[in-house]
Design a protein that fits this description.
Rossmann fold; 6-stranded mixed beta sheet; 9 helices; binds adenosine-5'-triphosphate
């Protein structure tokens, strides 16, 4: 099932002499179960692509579809609802609410959607357990968690409910390399469990967790590759 489809998407920032073609005619499809990495030099359009995929920004031309819905066809309220129910974000700096516990942070999207506190806490604790955190850790505040634990909470929050699309912008940027690998392993596992993931990264080793890597240059998709398939082919050659 296709979760995200970018259909000939372009985004021009600014106008006239200052116009920047941040994304040009991008075609991208991500299915449930897939993790796709985006790589490219600074200013190549990675954040622009991620923002368009998450409905935080609108294309100048082309269409963005999430679970079959054209985002531009929705009014503001409908778009906010779809984003809350279908899309989760994971940022480099976790973006947890400091005055809420880990479980309250994870439960936030459900409560915003009108679920009772008791029911959303139950689901939040289950979501935290899926990312390897127990009840005790769930009752801690963000400043009482390690960076890796905080990012786990962010992943739990991104995928709570039945949200299918997780958009991760340099999620390991603030973590040491071992913790970063653990967070990516977790993102990979959540995609294996049925989510669709889009991961912006500068690190080729981290991109190795993805099914495909999309390379951007000057706003254009210049190459896509399948690192895992290549690794399998190499191993087959050895046997
Ligand atoms: N709001 C904006 N107004 C004007 N230009 C913008 C805006 N946002 C991005 N740009 C420009 O669009 C181009 C793509 O930017 P974008 O942030 O998507 O790149 P990036 O690949 O994410 O870069 P980085 O790796 O540095 O985060 C750049 O030339 C940038 O300067």
């Amino acid at each position: 099932m296709t979760v995200l489809h970018l259909n000939g998407v372009s985004r021009v920032h600014g106008s006239g002499e200052n116009a920047v073609n941040a994304l040009v005619d991008a075609e991208l499809t991500i299915a449930a179960g897939e993790l796709v990495a985006i790589m490219g030099p600074s200013g190549s359009g990675k954040s622009t692509l991620l923002n368009l995929a998450g409905g935080l920004d609108a294309p100048t031309s082309g269409q963005v579809l999430v679970e079959g819905t054209v985002l531009a066809s929705l009014n503001k309220k409908q778009l906010a609802g779809l984003r809350r129910r279908s899309i989760g974000y994971v940022f480099q700096d976790y973006n947890l609410v400091p005055s809420l516990t880990a479980a309250e942070n994870a439960a936030l999207p459900l409560e915003l959607d009108g679920m009772s506190a008791g029911k959303s806490r139950k689901l939040a604790l289950a979501a935290l357990e899926e990312v390897g955190l127990d009840v005790k850790q769930g009752d801690r505040f963000p400043d009482e968690l390690s960076g890796g634990q905080a990012q786990r909470v962010a992943i739990a929050r991104a995928l709570i409910g039945d949200r299918r699309l997780v958009l991760a912008d340099e999620p390991t940027g603030a973590l040491d390399s071992t913790t970063g690998e653990e967070v990516l392993k977790l993102l990979r596992a959540r995609c294996d469990a049925g989510a669709a993931g889009l991961l912006v990264t500068h690190d080729a080793r981290h991109a190795g967790w993805a099914d495909r890597i999309v390379f951007l240059r000057d706003g254009r998709i210049v190459d896509t590759s399948a690192p895992l398939a290549d690794a399998d082919a190499l191993l087959e050659g050895v046997e």
